[in-house]
Amino acid sequence: KTPMLYVFYAFLIFLSGGNLVYFKLLNDLLLFLVALLIFYITKIKYENIGIKAFTTTCLYVSFMSFDWAKTEYSEIYVIFFLASSYLYLLRKSSNNVFKAGLLFSIATLVNQGSIVFAIPFLFVIFKRAKNIGIEIIKFSLGVLIPHFLMLLFYLFNDLFDIYYATLFKIPLTYTQSDFLFLEEILVFVKSIYNHSFLLFFIFFASVIFLMGFFTNLNLWRNSKNNIFTLDHEINLFLLTSLLFYYLAAKGYYHHTLFLIFFSVFIINQFTSGNFSYFFNFTIFICSCSIILSTASSSLNNLKNLNEVENNYPLKELSIVIDSYFDDDFTVLALDYNLILYYLDKPNFSYIVHPQNHYEDFITNELINLDLIKDNQIRELISAEPDVILCSGTQIISGIVTQIEEFNCEVSDYNRKYIKLDTNLYRYNANINLYPDPYREVGVYLKIND
Question: Is the pLDDT of residue 6 over 80?
Fold first, then answer.
């Protein structure tokens, strides 16, 4: 991950006092701020007294009601800074372009892939600036200052190799994977249909509009009824969001969060009163239906925050693990990394994210930097950390996969370890968002010397 994501996470963890529920609520507050930015962008761009701004915001919040749309994703942080930057460009002031550059720079330090949004930002500056050269210089200075300060921080801590690998080398190889773009898009569209038919209908209508935009249909372009007016800025941001999804080349749902954010502005390009009324009414009904379906569980969670926190299966398991040790101990988490958070322990492995152990474009670079070794997981298990978390079989990309790089059943070949009986947690409905009957909660404790 890029540097600033760690900074923001650390700050919110500090504010939450380490309580995961409070941490999630603080991230929800960030989502609320993003919704406010949508409201103000819509009011300024379309000079509306608030009806369109309100319904546009409701449409975004409705899209973010998906169970997978977790607010802790780096993309939400990036969207906050991209939207703030765009809002500054919309408000005409001599210093706003420089401030927009600063905010855009922070976005790229949260998720380096957001650099592709430099394309629409430069377009906006070219379109709106009176003195293009001066404005480009101001924007560029705003972009360079945070990157320069972060570079100095890494240099002073003798971490330049990590800085270069994280921001440049690894991202460039991230996209080198097999990816069926249209197939993955259809899967995403199907998820919208399964979540809410009204939301799918609004999305489908927006796609029809986009088809008209791409093909420049004469029927719409020459219509005397003036059905819509193209907003080239928003449409370029939308196309760039598709480019981001394509370049990411993984098909993960959270890579569509930029697409979701900018697509909600499409409805404001309909200038026909009848179309506007129709969309506003449909969005209002859609929002109400989603609120009615989620309000009860949401309010119940808010009323019982401590109970929600204490009932998290992995927190309960972390308490059991901690009870086996009187002194400090080490933890190698090859799965269920949330236990590291509850135990307040660093991972025994240099790599934190479990799936990154199996990504050659990451491991090869870290091997070249002499930060990990080849066959690293076997090496880590051989080093005998006090606790090992490992699941040998799980569903990966819809396929039941047996991990063959190493043997998870540590207690079978190393008598220093015992295996905890974790079925109580494994079959708890709250442990995984998507059920995985093949994925056990493998916990191995070194208690015999």
Answer: yes
